[in-house]
Design brief:
By secondary structure, this protein is mainly α. The protein has a single domain, classed as Serine Threonine Protein Phosphatase 5, Tetratricopeptide repeat, CATH 1.25.40. It is built from eight helices and no strands. α1 (about 1-10) runs antiparallel to α2 and α4 runs antiparallel to α5 (about 75-85). The relative contact order is 0.10.
Length: about 130
């Protein structure tokens, strides 16, 4: 809990607020507070200068997973499906979705099938180098 207090304190500093929100979303999600996790994910995703891989990770692991765990399963699945559709040239994005889905204990069959299809087509080579 001390780490949470320090992250909240960092969140009040304009220079650290984006980074703090990223980690606060994760901390709140691990503690089971999906409302706070969604709130902090939204703060992080609202930042303009966020690198794509962090945005994707936050969207899949924090925002959509929190939505799913909060009972907003349609919203979570829609967000994950949107990311899967954008993953044609980004297998790492598909991996983020599958991992987030599994961690949320959601029905991941459609996302896993897409990953298997890409792996069978040899697309895994794109991220192994």
């Amino acid at each position: 809990m001390l780490a949470l207090l320090y992250l909240e304190q960092a969140g009040r500093d304009a220079r650290l607020s984006s980074t703090a929100a990223y980690f606060l979303a994760d901390a709140w999600l691990m503690l089971g507070n999906t409302e706070q996790a969604q709130r902090q994910a939204a703060v992080f995703l609202a930042q303009g200068q966020v690198p794509a891989q962090y945005r994707d990770h936050a969207r899949a692991h924090r925002q959509a997973a929190a939505q799913y765990l909060a009972g907003k399963r349609q919203d979570a699945n829609a967000a994950w499906m949107d990311m899967v559709e954008k993953s044609a040239n980004k297998p790492e994005l598909l991996a983020e979705v599958v991992l987030a889905c599994v961690r949320a204990r959601a029905d991941c069959a459609k996302f896993e099938q897409r990953a298997v299809t890409l792996a069978d087509a040899g697309e895994g080579k794109n991220i192994s180098s």
